Amino acid sequence: xxxxxxxxxxxxxxxxxxxxxxxxxxxxxxxxxxxxxxxxxxxxxxxxxxxxxxxxxxxxxxxxxxxxxxxxxxxxxxxxxxxxxxxxxxxxxxxxxxxxxxxxxxxxxxxxxxxxxxxxxxxxx
Length: 125
Description:
Radius of gyration: 16 Å
Oligomer: single chain
Number of helices: 3
Strand order of the largest sheet: 2-1-3-4-5
């Protein structure tokens, strides 16, 4: 099971990303990313991150295939704290990698599109 903890719900992912997630993890569950107050201090962010780690652990209790990970993308301090806490519990964390494709739009505007490439695991190698 892959828990998608990001601002981009999986129903908006490219077909290639959904397929990669299903092949590697079996299923995808969305856990919407919380709003992070820019004025929050480190303690507040840590508390919120702890709450989301517990939510992830509770969701994993329903996993049937045993291949579990959390896809974490969003506000940097929150993501870092969530990832550290999850890694400390022995959980796998991943990010999605993309290739930036720049195109020229109407009126000469540059439009960037991001094409999914793969999931990359977080870790301390």
